[in-house]
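Database export, one record per block. Field names are fixed; values are copied verbatim from the stored entry.
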Amino acid sequence: MKNFFQLLHKANRHIKLIDKCLIVFMVILLFQSLYILFANQIISQNNNSVDVVIRSAIASIFGYFISANFIKSKEASLPTHHAPATPAKKPVTPPDCFTRSVQVIIVTVLGLISLVALIINRNLSVIPDSSIPTITQLRDIVFGCVGFLLGYPSDSMDVKK
């Protein structure tokens, strides 16, 4: 068990911030999907719209993790021992890297708050018709945040060594 945690810690150092944020989204969405699967609740039309958000977001994130983009970002973070064939990119300055990290964290927090609000509303209450505009807004925020994280160039952020 100790080796497993050491392996997780070592892997954590090589995972980019974007990927860590997407993993958090993926874990929450996966647990919610499992809850929906086993809860056997009566599903209203409004609950169904929240379920569509959950299924679509989890499919998008899963698609990213099995795509070549995820593998390319991992290969780019591995050290190489030969001279690059392409011209070197402009190095990211620490303030710029900090600003990008803050942007990613802000987007992740807003997306997670919106996602948790949708999940709580879906699981604990009957969604009244008057809250549909708010649910639609939260849904759009979740999709916007996931889309931002999926499309963010992961090679523009440094990995802690």
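Remark 1: Helices lie at 2-13, 17-39, 45-65, 68-77, 94-124, 132-151.
Remark 2: The mean pLDDT is 78.
End of record.
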